[in-house]
Amino acid sequence: MKLTIVEYPDKRLKEKSKIVEKFDEELHKLLEAMYASMIESNGIGLAAIQVGYAKQVLLLNIPDDNDEQSRDSLIEMINPIITQSEGETIYQEGCLSVPSFYEDVSRFERVCVNYQDREGNTKTIEATGLLSVAIQHEIDHLHGVLFIDKLSYSRRKKFEKEYKKVQKEKKLSKNQFA
User: Does residue 178 belong to any structural domain of this protein?
Assistant: First the structure.
């Protein structure tokens, strides 16, 4: 199963993902294909809606101190729910669905999340730092929210202007080589 990353402004990114009820081979194939797409795209997280599947499924693979992403540290979350949160942190975020754009976003410093694994077993994780930020970013995707939706009015306008400029440059570049 080869997956393609859905990019802004595709309307599927605004879709709310549905709860997963079947923990079967189809789900396992989706998780494997998502992992391959995430690693191939140099991502640290990926929600199923970013590859066109409106299911409450996400992956996280935070790089270690050597900037390597070991499969052993892969976290697969199905039907995640933030049960506790506290503090505030600002982190410069990017997104595979909004390539080449980074902005500071305010998030909770610490979160506690209940979720299910690929077999349907209930799990709980407490996270701080980058893992906490990445979990919140990916859970937002499950609710149809992009990190650019969290920007202030002026920063959002700045993004729209830069986005249009990049799209125009891509179009010109394509026409030169066509």
Answer: no
Chain CA centroid to CA 34, Å: 11
Cα separation, 119 vs 43, in Å, equals: 24
28 occurs within a structural domain: yes
Place 178 in a pLDDT band, splitting at 50, 70 and 90: low
Domain at 107, CATH number: 3.90.45.10
- Residue 137 assigned ligand-binding role: yes
CB 53 within 8 A of CB 31: no
- Name the β-bridge partners of 110: 86, 128
* pLDDT one-digit tens code per residue, 161-171: 999 998 888 88
**Considering the domain boundaries, does residue 42 fall inside one?**
yes
Q: Contact 20/56 with Cβ under 8 angstroms?
A: yes
Residue 166 lies in a domain: no
Catalytic residue, chosen from 76, 93, 103, 138, is 138
Give the residue numbers spanning the domain of 97. 11-152
143 is known to lie in a ligand binding site: no
141 appears as a binding residue in the annotation: yes
138 annotated active-site: yes
**Of 121, 143, 111, 21, whose CA–CA distance to 76 is shortest?**
121
Domains identified in the chain, total number? 1
Question: Which pTM does this prediction carry?
Answer: 0.93
